[in-house]
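tool_call: predict_structure(chain=1)
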Amino acid sequence: MLTLHVAENSPETAVLVEGATVAAVAPYEELTTAVPQARVRNWPGILTPGLLNPYAPELLEATYHPDPREAETLGTDPITGERAQALFRRDPTRLGASARRGVQRMLALGTVAVAGDLRTRTVQDVVRRANLAVGQRPPRLPGPPALSPTPLILMPPLTRGAVARFAVFDVATREELVKRGASTCVATVIEGRLVHRSR
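tool_result:
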Protein backbone atom coordinates (compact mmCIF):
# COMPACT_ATOMS: atom_id res chain seq x y z
CA MET A 1 0.00 0.00 0.00
CA LEU A 2 1.18 3.49 -0.84
CA THR A 3 0.94 6.10 1.91
CA LEU A 4 1.66 9.77 1.36
CA HIS A 5 2.76 11.71 4.46
CA VAL A 6 2.55 15.49 4.33
CA ALA A 7 2.94 18.14 7.04
CA GLU A 8 1.23 21.53 6.74
CA ASN A 9 4.43 23.55 7.24
CA SER A 10 6.61 21.49 4.90
CA PRO A 11 4.49 20.52 1.86
CA GLU A 12 7.60 20.70 -0.33
CA THR A 13 8.98 17.58 1.36
CA ALA A 14 6.04 15.19 1.30
CA VAL A 15 7.07 11.52 1.58
CA LEU A 16 5.52 8.66 -0.36
CA VAL A 17 6.00 5.34 1.42
CA GLU A 18 5.63 1.89 -0.09
CA GLY A 19 5.98 -0.86 2.49
CA ALA A 20 9.11 -0.09 4.51
CA THR A 21 10.71 2.08 1.84
CA VAL A 22 10.62 5.70 0.71
CA ALA A 23 9.15 5.60 -2.81
CA ALA A 24 9.52 9.35 -3.41
CA VAL A 25 10.22 12.68 -1.73
CA ALA A 26 8.72 15.63 -3.56
CA PRO A 27 6.23 18.48 -3.20
CA TYR A 28 2.80 17.29 -2.08
CA GLU A 29 0.98 18.53 -5.21
CA GLU A 30 3.41 16.68 -7.45
CA LEU A 31 2.97 13.39 -5.58
CA THR A 32 -0.83 13.57 -5.34
CA THR A 33 -0.98 14.14 -9.09
CA ALA A 34 1.42 11.27 -9.80
CA VAL A 35 -0.12 8.80 -7.32
CA PRO A 36 -3.76 9.79 -6.70
CA GLN A 37 -4.57 6.36 -5.23
CA ALA A 38 -2.16 6.79 -2.28
CA ARG A 39 -3.63 7.00 1.20
CA VAL A 40 -2.84 10.46 2.60
CA ARG A 41 -1.78 11.22 6.16
CA ASN A 42 -1.97 14.93 6.92
CA TRP A 43 0.09 16.17 9.86
CA PRO A 44 0.52 19.51 11.58
CA GLY A 45 3.95 21.10 11.67
CA ILE A 46 7.01 19.88 9.75
CA LEU A 47 8.18 16.50 8.50
CA THR A 48 11.86 15.74 9.13
CA PRO A 49 14.18 12.73 8.74
CA GLY A 50 13.85 12.08 12.49
CA LEU A 51 16.38 12.24 15.29
CA LEU A 52 19.48 10.34 16.33
CA ASN A 53 19.95 9.84 20.06
CA PRO A 54 23.67 9.21 20.65
CA TYR A 55 23.27 8.04 24.25
CA ALA A 56 21.85 4.53 23.81
CA PRO A 57 24.11 2.80 26.40
CA GLU A 58 23.57 5.49 29.03
CA LEU A 59 19.80 5.65 28.50
CA LEU A 60 18.98 1.99 27.89
CA GLU A 61 21.60 0.04 29.85
CA ALA A 62 22.53 2.39 32.70
CA THR A 63 19.13 4.04 33.31
CA TYR A 64 16.00 2.52 34.80
CA HIS A 65 12.72 3.75 33.28
CA PRO A 66 10.07 3.06 35.92
CA ASP A 67 6.87 1.25 35.05
CA PRO A 68 3.86 3.57 35.60
CA ARG A 69 2.68 1.03 38.21
CA GLU A 70 5.83 1.81 40.21
CA ALA A 71 5.13 5.55 40.36
CA GLU A 72 4.26 5.52 44.07
CA THR A 73 7.51 3.84 45.08
CA LEU A 74 9.97 4.91 42.37
CA GLY A 75 8.42 8.01 40.83
CA THR A 76 8.14 8.53 37.09
CA ASP A 77 11.51 10.09 36.21
CA PRO A 78 14.35 7.93 34.83
CA ILE A 79 16.66 6.59 37.55
CA THR A 80 20.42 6.62 36.98
CA GLY A 81 23.63 5.76 38.80
CA GLU A 82 23.98 3.26 41.61
CA ARG A 83 20.26 3.31 42.33
CA ALA A 84 19.51 2.03 38.80
CA GLN A 85 22.25 -0.60 39.00
CA ALA A 86 20.88 -1.81 42.35
CA LEU A 87 17.43 -2.26 40.75
CA PHE A 88 18.96 -4.28 37.89
CA ARG A 89 21.02 -6.45 40.30
CA ARG A 90 17.96 -7.14 42.46
CA ASP A 91 15.92 -8.25 39.43
CA PRO A 92 17.83 -8.71 36.12
CA THR A 93 14.55 -9.01 34.16
CA ARG A 94 14.02 -5.30 34.83
CA LEU A 95 16.68 -4.39 32.27
CA GLY A 96 14.66 -5.55 29.26
CA ALA A 97 11.39 -4.04 30.48
CA SER A 98 13.12 -0.76 31.31
CA ALA A 99 14.81 -0.65 27.88
CA ARG A 100 11.45 -1.21 26.15
CA ARG A 101 9.94 1.71 28.07
CA GLY A 102 13.02 3.83 27.30
CA VAL A 103 12.70 3.06 23.59
CA GLN A 104 8.99 3.95 23.66
CA ARG A 105 9.89 7.29 25.25
CA MET A 106 12.50 7.87 22.53
CA LEU A 107 9.98 7.07 19.80
CA ALA A 108 7.60 9.61 21.33
CA LEU A 109 10.35 12.20 20.83
CA GLY A 110 10.91 11.48 17.14
CA THR A 111 13.95 9.25 17.61
CA VAL A 112 14.50 6.91 14.66
CA ALA A 113 18.14 5.95 15.36
CA VAL A 114 20.46 5.47 18.31
CA ALA A 115 24.23 5.36 18.67
CA GLY A 116 26.70 3.98 21.15
CA ASP A 117 28.17 0.60 22.01
CA LEU A 118 25.36 -1.50 23.49
CA ARG A 119 26.95 -4.29 25.53
CA THR A 120 23.99 -6.35 26.68
CA ARG A 121 22.15 -8.79 24.43
CA THR A 122 18.86 -7.90 26.13
CA VAL A 123 19.07 -4.23 25.14
CA GLN A 124 20.44 -5.03 21.68
CA ASP A 125 17.34 -7.19 21.12
CA VAL A 126 15.01 -4.39 22.29
CA VAL A 127 16.61 -1.92 19.85
CA ARG A 128 16.50 -4.47 17.01
CA ARG A 129 12.82 -5.30 17.61
CA ALA A 130 11.97 -1.59 17.55
CA ASN A 131 13.74 -1.36 14.16
CA LEU A 132 15.75 1.63 15.32
CA ALA A 133 18.72 2.34 13.09
CA VAL A 134 22.04 2.02 14.91
CA GLY A 135 24.59 4.62 13.90
CA GLN A 136 28.04 5.81 14.84
CA ARG A 137 28.43 8.06 17.83
CA PRO A 138 29.38 11.61 16.87
CA PRO A 139 33.00 12.42 17.79
CA ARG A 140 31.76 15.13 20.16
CA LEU A 141 28.58 14.44 22.04
CA PRO A 142 26.23 17.41 22.31
CA GLY A 143 25.61 17.41 26.06
CA PRO A 144 24.59 15.21 28.98
CA PRO A 145 22.64 12.00 28.25
CA ALA A 146 18.96 12.80 27.77
CA LEU A 147 15.95 11.29 26.02
CA SER A 148 15.78 14.59 24.12
CA PRO A 149 19.44 15.65 23.85
CA THR A 150 20.42 19.24 23.22
CA PRO A 151 21.22 20.15 20.54
CA LEU A 152 19.02 17.82 18.50
CA ILE A 153 20.78 15.63 15.92
CA LEU A 154 18.76 15.23 12.71
CA MET A 155 19.30 12.20 10.49
CA PRO A 156 20.40 12.75 6.86
CA PRO A 157 17.75 13.87 4.34
CA LEU A 158 15.23 11.29 3.12
CA THR A 159 15.89 9.84 -0.32
CA ARG A 160 14.07 7.51 -2.70
CA GLY A 161 14.83 3.86 -1.92
CA ALA A 162 15.90 4.53 1.68
CA VAL A 163 14.23 2.92 4.66
CA ALA A 164 11.19 5.01 5.62
CA ARG A 165 12.28 6.51 8.94
CA PHE A 166 11.08 10.00 9.79
CA ALA A 167 9.24 12.13 12.34
CA VAL A 168 6.75 14.96 12.38
CA PHE A 169 6.99 17.85 14.83
CA ASP A 170 4.24 20.37 15.56
CA VAL A 171 6.33 23.47 14.88
CA ALA A 172 6.42 26.03 12.08
CA THR A 173 10.13 25.74 11.20
CA ARG A 174 13.27 23.77 11.99
CA GLU A 175 14.49 26.78 13.96
CA GLU A 176 11.41 26.47 16.16
CA LEU A 177 12.08 22.73 16.54
CA VAL A 178 15.60 23.49 17.76
CA LYS A 179 14.21 26.06 20.21
CA ARG A 180 11.25 24.04 21.53
CA GLY A 181 12.78 20.57 21.33
CA ALA A 182 11.64 17.03 20.58
CA SER A 183 8.65 17.14 22.91
CA THR A 184 6.78 18.70 19.95
CA CYS A 185 6.79 15.31 18.16
CA VAL A 186 3.36 14.24 16.91
CA ALA A 187 4.34 11.17 14.86
CA THR A 188 7.25 8.80 14.34
CA VAL A 189 7.48 6.39 11.42
CA ILE A 190 9.98 3.53 11.27
CA GLU A 191 10.16 1.14 8.31
CA GLY A 192 6.93 2.65 7.05
CA ARG A 193 5.00 1.87 10.25
CA LEU A 194 3.54 4.53 12.48
CA VAL A 195 5.20 3.66 15.80
CA HIS A 196 4.18 6.79 17.69
CA ARG A 197 1.27 9.14 17.29
CA SER A 198 0.31 11.79 19.81
CA ARG A 199 -2.89 12.89 18.05
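agent: The mean pLDDT is 95. Proceeding to next step.
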